[in-house]
């Protein structure tokens, strides 16, 4: 038991004494991208029904200079018979101690309910900031607006809100 206590104290002292240097999360130079896919299935006991879902998505980040960059995100999700599409992105300034930027994204889906086609479109926009206190700690904030448009068989509804 004494060895575990000494190991815990030694590792804690090492982590606490580590220098707090900036994370150096600069904008990418050139192009950096990723693509992913996922599949899932849900079943319920006592039911013959199951729910299948699959997703494919990708992101690409571009460096426009040593401290400026942008990112584009696209995605498609199929949840049983509901299709969800989305595209978005951000532009940011990334000095050594943090990151400041703006973002914009749009999502859409269409479904039939009780014989009516229902179209739902969502738009989010905002600004964000991060401050890298050290390699292990980041302070961040973001805020903006949300607009949702629902068109159901000729009835049109706009819903607006915000987030912080």
N- and C-termini, Cα separation: 46 Å
The whole-angstrom Rg is 22 Å
What order do the strands of the largest sheet run in, or round the barrel if closed?
Answer: 1-2-3-4-5-6-7-8
| Amount of helix | under 10%
> Could you spell the SSE succession in H and E letters?
HEEEEEEEE
Q: What's the total helix number?
A: 1
The overall average pLDDT, rounded, is 83
Give the strand tally: 8
Structural class: mainly beta
Low-confidence stretches: 4-24
- The best one-word shape is globular
Strand portion? over 45%
Q: Give the biggest beta sheet.
A: 8 strands, antiparallel
Task: Write structural notes for this entry.
- With 164 residues, the chain is mainly beta.
- The chain has one helix at residues 2-17, and strands spanning 31-43, 50-63, 68-79, 82-93, 98-113, 116-134, 137-152, 155-163.
- Strands 1-2-3-4-5-6-7-8 form an eight-stranded antiparallel sheet, with no helix packed on it.
- The radius of gyration is 22 Å and the shape is globular.
- The termini are far apart.
- Residues 4-24 have low confidence and may be disordered.
């Amino acid at each position: 038991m004494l060895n575990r206590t000494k190991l815990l104290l030694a590792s804690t002292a090492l982590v606490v004494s580590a220098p707090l240097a900036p994370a150096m999360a600069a904008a990418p130079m050139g192009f950096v991208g990723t693509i992913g896919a996922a599949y899932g299935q849900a079943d319920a006991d006592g039911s013959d029904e199951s729910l299948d879902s699959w997703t494919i998505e990708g992101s690409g980040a571009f460096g426009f200079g040593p401290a400026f960059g942008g990112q584009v995100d696209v995605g498609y999700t199929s949840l049983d018979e509901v299709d969800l599409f989305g595209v978005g992105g951000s532009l940011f300034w990334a000095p050594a101690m943090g990151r400041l930027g703006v973002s914009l994204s749009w999502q859409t889906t269409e479904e039939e309910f009780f014989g009516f086609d229902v179209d739902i479109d969502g738009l989010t926009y905002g600004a964000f900031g991060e401050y890298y206190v050290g390699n292990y700690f980041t302070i961040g904030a973001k805020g903006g607006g949300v607009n949702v448009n629902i068109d159901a068989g000729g009835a049109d509804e706009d819903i607006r809100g915000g987030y912080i």
